[in-house]
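Support case: lysine complex. Customer-provided input:
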Amino acid sequence: MDHFQLRHGVMHAEDVPLTRIAEEVGTPVYVYSRATLVRHARVFREALSGLKNPHIAFAVKSNPNLAVLKVLSREGYGADVVSGGELVRALAADMAPKDIVFSGVGKTAAELLQALDADIGQFNLESKEEGRELAEIAVQNGKIARCALRVNPDVDARTHEKISTGKAENKFGVPIDRAAGIYAALAALPGLDMRGIAVHIGSQLSSLEPLETAFGKVGDLIAELRAQGQKVTHADLGGGLGVPYKSGDVLPSPAEYGAMVAQVTKDWDVALSFEPGRVIAGNAGVLLTRVIRVKRSSNASPFVVVDAAMNDLARPAMYGAWHDIDAVEPNGTRSVSHIVGPICETGDTFAMNREMDTLEAGDLAIFRTAGAYGATMASSYNSRGFVAEVLVDGDKYAVVADRLPPADIMGAERVPDWL
Ligand SMILES: Cc1ncc(COP(=O)(O)O)c(C=O)c1O
Ligand SMILES: N[C@@H](CCCC[NH3+])C(=O)O
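Agent response - structure generated as follows:
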């Protein structure tokens, strides 16, 4: 069920009209639905019910808002973090340290120590160099780091090239054909408890096949490691499940994903964990924007200039991504327009020649499927402020991230006294 729907001609988030949020909080603003987050969290968990005690770590990078994390921690979710900053957020949202896994190719020594001190559940090591460094830090501090080795299975995830992570030329993980040797070398180090394998081949996957291929390779590796006498008790299968961005898109369902995983892993005899991001948060949020003006300077489609820009929602500019755009109070007509932001870059374009609800100056509109990789990728480019975020729960809402005005951002800058 979609919690962003028209009621009496006005788009609502759950029971709250978006016109009210626009008036009271201003635009642009991200609006999240608690009910959708909870539903997605439960659907994903249910999809894995064929597995024994699966561990689910929400990919914090997809939506690190504290209130969003709190909703998920109350659903029993842990966190997949990729920086010290995300670790602090996961802990602040009451995610248990044992339920936190730390991924990423560039964890610094300070971050490794921070995570050791927090006693997190697992480090997903991305190289032998990182493993050696973590071992040293652990020994110096009298700790043992629970670790998985992230492998790069050289599988084409068939997604956008910038969010593919499992091809040999991508920077992530260690080549799977060298993994057994690296695993054995790291397992011999004091300070590390090598206990498993991690894999994540990319994001917004629209087919299960590449995942199945990658997981099959991980299964072979686990068997090989065990045959060599290594202990393998855990496997982290990452995230990556895609979501529909365009109405009518058909993607594999969490249930189909769960069934595939259950089938591929049935003989593994390991504790499985997962790192979903987009599939939980993507369709739980919209970006609410207001039309500044409509430029009709030629016979071509008009430019509808909205107050949201590529600094607020970077996906269309970065990946050419499509987001459905709907009027908040549709007037019943449709037309073809270009939807653009105010930033001085041609790339600040959300849609070209899009047939959609007709929008006029002052109208409100939403960019759908903006709950993941939306606010978190915002910047202050063109000295625009940071966008606000709101969480709706039934007929109430709360501002869960204040708008950060340009003056506050400038306030963090200093002109040296020698200038
Ligand atoms: C290591 C890791 N885990 C999980 C995720 C979450 O991916 P998604 O949002 O596609 O589920 C990502 C991002 O692609 C990632 O890099
Ligand atoms: N930022 C990307 C997803 C990156 C996933 C990172 N592991 C997007 O908006 O689609």
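Residues 59, 62, 80, 103, 165, 200, 203, 238-241, 275-279, 372 surround pyridoxal-5'-phosphate (ligand 1) (CB under 6 Å).

Case will auto-close in a few days if no follow-up is received.
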